[in-house]
Amino acid sequence: MPSAFTRRRFLGGSLALTATGLLAACGRGSTPGASGSGAWSFTDDVGATARLDGMPTRVAGLNDAIASLWNYGVTPVASFGYTALDDDVNFAGKDLGKVKQVGRTYGEIDIDALAAAQPQLIVAHAYPVDGEGTIDKEKPLYGFKDLKQQETIASIAPIVAIAMTGTARDVVARTTELASAVGVTGQTLDKHKKDYDAAADRLRAATASGVSAMAIAAYPSDGVHIAKAPDDPALRSYTELGLEYPDPGGDGYYWRQVSWENIGDYRTDVVLYSIRDGLDAEELRKQPTFAKLPAAESGQLYPWEFSSMDYVAQARTLNQLAENLEKARKVT
C-alpha cells in the first residue's frame, strides 16, 4: 500500500537555467513548442537534465506534481495519477475542463492521448526505497507502471522528477525552483510563501498544548498502517513545528502495520486518517478495538490530507491541522 502516501526528502538535484534573464519575460502561450529566445534546462532530483530550445509552456504529468504548478498559475495540459482529478482534494475549485486526463488509475496511461496533448515537459515524483532517502534508478518514477512505459513517455517530452524525501519545507522549496524555471514570478512565489509561513506559525502555536497524534491508513482485512513521521515529509514537518508524534516502531520503511487486535497498544490524543484511501472516521469507529482508543472515544479523529508540495496546498493543510489541534485536548 503505501507508496500513495509516501513523501520524501530533497535528494539534492540542482537547478540549471541558461538565459535566466529571459524567463520572466516568457509567457505561458498555448501553442506547441517551447517559447523563449534562449535554451532552457533543468536538472532534476535523479540527476537527469531536461533540455529544450526555450522555456516550456505546455506541462503535463503526475497529479501530485502538476497540482503544485497549477497552484502557482501554470495550468497543465494533461494529467495522470492515482485517481481522477475530480476525486483529488488538490484540484478542488479548479476548471478541470482545461486538462486532458490521460490516466485515472495508477500506471494506466493513455500514451496516444498524452502525445496528442503535445506537452513540452512532463513532471513526476521520485520516491526513496528506504529511510536513508535512496532512490533506486532501476525502478520507474512514481506514476509509471514500469521503465518501458516511462521510456516511451519520455520520447514524447522530457521528464523531470522531484524527490519526495526529507521535510516538506525542503520539497516545497525544490518544487518552487521548478515553478520558477517554468516562468512563475518571484512576486507570486513570495506572496504564497508568506501565507505558508503564517500557517506554520499557527501550527507551531497549536502544538504547544502537547497533544499527540498518529497518522494512519486502515483497511478491514489488513489492519492499521501507522505512518512513520521521519519517512513522510509532511509529517516530519509537523514534528519540526512541535507536534508530538510517537514512533510506532518496527523495522519496515514508512509504515508500521498493526492488527486490529493490537491497535489498542497505540494510544494518541489525536488520530489522522487518510482521506485518499482506507477507512474514514465513521468506519473506524465501527471497529470494536479501534473505537476504544482515547482519540476515538473523545471524537478526535481528523482527516489526513495528502496535499501537493507547494506553498498554497501546504498552507491550507497546516491551517486545517492547526484548527483541529486547537480544539483537541489531552486524553492520554
TrEMBL record:
Pfam families attached here? Peripla_BP_2
Give the domain of life.
Bacteria
Which residues does the UniProt record annotate as the domain Fe/B12 periplasmic-binding?
96-304
Biological process according to GO:
iron coordination entity transport
Q: Which UniProt keywords apply?
A: Signal, Transport
Q: Where is the protein found, in the record's own terms? A: Cell envelope
Q: Which cellular components does GO assign to this protein?
A: outer membrane-bounded periplasmic space
Q: Does the keyword Transport apply?
A: yes
> Which family is annotated?
Belongs to the bacterial solute-binding protein 8 family.
Specify the protein name.
Iron complex transport system substrate-binding protein
Per the UniProt record, the source organism is Prauserella marina
